[in-house]
Design a protein that fits this description.
alpha/beta; Nucleotidyltransferase, domain 5; 3 domains
């Protein structure tokens, strides 16, 4: 039954002497008793049901003027609800309601990403064109991507989304609500290669820094064995522009040993959004680390070795299968980062 029909029926019944409770029972709960009482009051006062104005007292804070002021504040850039409420002399709750209910806004975090110059953007567009020109779709599935990442015993946690549900702060603290960080945590660097077939053996650097000699000896030899094992002699190696990677001897070793490789002149700088490890696989890897048992460098290394074995092959393949689409989207986006 339409709202207009219900209004006519309630009006007729009330004018015939029926009380709100009887009308409620006659309508079998189609309308709430509170609504019927409000409508009957309107009929008694004005002779008809007037729904052109909202029920309740008039707004004193979320007025049209206040909404206009909030909208003007937003045009100036980022602003917190606390500062917005303070500047406009209202509660944070009222400011939130204006932002969400009246203006339809939602809060978004500021994203941090490396700065891209126009030169970087041109190089990013060039790699997209070069891949499309020199690689068929099936050949892009034979690229072995690689990357290094630093881990420390403090672990990875999200201060915004990792919440502890408890009655009070003391109980939350007992349930793990305090994450303590060491001033100088023990760290290890790891290298990982990934392709459409899965992930390579994990290379862990427990001590010291990685120069080009160590990189060639401990990493590239592992990448070569793994790539030849899964693809034979028909595959391509990728690495970013880190100093050990772009060293003259490293580039020469790659040229002499890999079937194909993307050299330093082709791979663009500041492009983590083009490497499946950065935009997908590292997140997958971290999910399988049990940070509760990581208390030392030894336990950290053990967890890293366990976690890499749990990376799901379907996640790896899907990240690869969408890679060429990402290249196309990036080139259509004038070389900017993919969101």
């Amino acid at each position: 039954m339409k709202s207009e029909d219900l209004q006519k029926l309630v009006t007729l019944k009330h004018q015939n002497g029926d009380y709100p409770t009887k009308i409620f029972h006659d309508l079998n709960g189609v309308l709430g008793l509170t609504t019927i009482k409000r409508w009957c009051k309107m009929i008694d006062e004005a002779g008809f049901i007037n729904l052109t104005t909202p029920p309740g007292p008039p707004r004193t804070v979320r007025t049209a003027g206040a909404i206009k002021k909030v909208k003007k504040k937003l045009q100036k850039g980022k602003v917190s609800t606390r500062k917005l409420a303070f500047d406009l002399g209202m509660s944070r709750k009222s400011a939130q309601r204006i932002l969400q209910d009246d203006l339809g806004c939602r809060p978004y975090k500021c994203l941090i990403e490396p700065a891209l110059t126009e030169e970087h953007k041109e190089k990013r567009k060039k790699i997209a064109n070069w891949i499309r020109t020199n690689f068929r779709k099936q050949e892009t599935l034979k690229i072995l991507f690689s990357d290094e990442k630093m881990f420390d015993i403090d672990g990875v946690y999200n201060t915004q989304n990792d919440r502890i549900w408890a009655v009070n702060r003391d109980e939350a603290n007992e349930k793990g609500g305090i994450h303590q960080k060491n001033k100088f945590p023990q760290k290890v660097m790891v290298w990982l290669g990934v392709c459409s077939k899965g992930v390579s053996p994990l290379v862990i650097f427990e001590q010291g820094t990685v120069d080009h000699e160590r990189y060639i000896k401990e990493v590239l030899s592992v990448a070569l064995r793994y790539g030849n094992h899964v693809f034979g002699n028909d595959w391509t190696f990728q690495q970013d522009g880190a100093k050990p990677h772009v060293h003259r001897l490293t580039q020469q070793w790659c040229h002499d040993n890999f079937p194909e490789f993307i050299d330093k002149d082709h791979w663009p700088p500041n492009s983590p959004d083009l490497n499946p490890l950065d935009y997908c696989i590292w997140d997958e890897f971290v999910k399988f680390i049990d940070w509760n048992i990581v208390t030392s460098k030894t336990t950290l290394i053990q967890e890293l070795k366990h976690a890499v074995k749990k990376i799901r092959k379907n996640v790896v393949f899907e990240s690869y299968n969408s890679w060429t689409n990402r290249l196309y989207g990036m080139s259509q986006n004038n070389g900017d980062y993919l969101k």
